[in-house]
Amino acid sequence: MGPPIRAMWLPVAAVLVLTANSVRLSAQVSLATVVDLAQRNSTAVRIGEADLSKAQAVLAEMRDVYIPNLVIGSTIGPPSIGFPAGQPSIANASMQSLVLSFPQRQYIRAARSGIEAATLSLKNAKEQVALDASTAYIELDTVIRELDSAHEQEKHTARLVEIEKDRTEAGVDATSELLQAQLTAAQIRLKRIHLETRAATLAKQLATLTGLPEGTITPDHASIPEIPAVTGDSTTPSAGVQSTQILAESKLLQAKGDESFIKRPQISFGAQYNRDSTVLNNYNDYYKNFKADNFSAGFQIEIPLFDVGHRAKARESTADALRAKVEAEQAQHQSDIQIAELSGSIRELDALAEIASLKQQIADEHLKTVQAELEAGNGSGSGPGSTRQLTPKSEQLARVEQNQRLEEALDASFDLAKARLGLLRALGHMEDWLRELNAK
Asked: Which of 57, 248, 338, 386 could form a disulfide with 328 if both were Cys (CB 3.0 to 4.6 A apart)?
């Protein structure tokens, strides 16, 4: 009974597996979902989150020095030989806290700036991931639409080659016309192979970004909102530039704190309790008025007079602050250059997209004209001054041209969208794009 039952279930299992695979391959995923998954899966975002947690811990560390700590312990050991060298406490407790420190104020301010810089750095990482995921998603959507057009072109060129073969065999066209049709078919086949390779690469890239299995993401064109046409005259720096600027401020505050450490006094408070015993030692031989319970408390005031180590530390912090300031200026300059380049590119790409759109419309109208003339059959013969009668070859050529112009328009539209997204990112408006994306 076992083998027949197993054989009966094998086809059912195969159908279920095939159905699951077909559902996985045909599932549409919105752009908002892809961006969200990419941000969750990004190592850069996780590193930014870890840096933010560290910055928050640093601030807590800087502030908590004013909160008294409490430490308990014991120094129980074997009897000492000769004069006792240690304190005979079976239990002890100590408490210590900072009361007044001028450098600590600067350190706390530096830590707060560090949190702000880490927050902006995390935002910058999320925006970069959103840009990468959005660009790959939109390009994949464009490539898939171009692939549909390429498949249509292959059908038309195959029909064109058949027509040319017939016309060449009938002696109507020269052999060069057939060769030209075959060359056109080969070029379109090469374009289709290139598009398939690009689509596979983009699918792999999106799978890596989102963590989803490869081939499970089919773009939903309706989920892509219109990208606004922004200009490069905004004065708001991006999150990355702001992060470097605030980090430079944090380094400067740290340097000021280290410098004031060697110039200002510091006051701390401490207290200690010991429960002493003479059971395991010979303290009674040396101390007559031995007491079991002992307590001490007081303030400690430190006035630096000569501290070479902290002076060198101050110079080191000052150098770090100067480097951070220069890096912030460099980031701002690079951002300005990038904005200028993208602004210029967008003007050109906008014009190219308009030209490609007009060419597509002309090709559409030309195809309609050819089809209308073929249906009307309005050629007037082959004599001098007569209108040449159109043939099915003319229709196939018009269809091939129409699909070519469509692909050119799609390419130009994607290039413009990519440049606009890059400018949004450089101008610090990527968050507005993400809000619009989530609302779509």
From this structure: 248
